[in-house]
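QA checklist item 7 of 12: single-chain prediction sanity check.
[x] sequence parsed
[x] length recorded as 127
[x] structure emitted
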Amino acid sequence: VVEEKVLKPKFRGTTWNLQFSPTVASIIRLKKQIQANSEEDNFTTSIVKNDLKINFGDQTTHNGNFVFHSGVQGTLNRAWNWPVKEFQSIMDLPGEKIVKISDQGVIEISVSSGLAIYKFMLPAQTK
């Protein structure tokens, strides 16, 4: 009876298309871009010439983009929407960060505080 009532988690793992460690300068630039695009709840990611770009808005509205991390290895084929507030909150945590992005609609951010490693999973959002 218990097995029928308890839901099993649907996420069973994924293939990571992209992995990198963001720099402090990139995180500061992210904060400035979030302030400039404060009306946006989501952002998308794309790779242009081995640069990971974060894009706010779309062509029909106020929009902007910037290079979040240069020299990435990997590809992204889908433009998922990611939650701005949650991503920024995790980036504001102290410690070393590793960001992994999957074309299957999930970002994993690992934060190493020196005492523990915290892993955060952000599912893609619909706009």
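[x] summary fact logged: The longest strand covers residues 42-48.
[ ] second reviewer sign-off
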